[in-house]
Amino acid sequence: MVEYKPILKYRATEVIAAASACDGARSLMNVRLLSAEVPLLPLKTCDRPATCKCIYRHFDDRRRKFPRREEHALNALMACTPGVERRTRLGRRESDYS
Fold it and tell me: Looking at the predicted structure, is the pLDDT value of residue 67 above 70?
């Protein structure tokens, strides 16, 4: 049986610069790029390619936050939690006044 692997269209990679990294690697820190667009390590502009200790960190998605639809769902869930009743006016039914 063949195991199904989903195709991750927006898989991203980030460069983790070592302590003694070159300026090029430091400029790529905390920047997520699509995996197809990430430069090979050591960088062509690296001044210490023989001792380069920079690595990649992989992510399934290039976004850092939740997708907006999930964020809205969380906000809606938080709004539905029981709390203090804020309605002050009574309704229009006769039973509201008796």
Answer: no
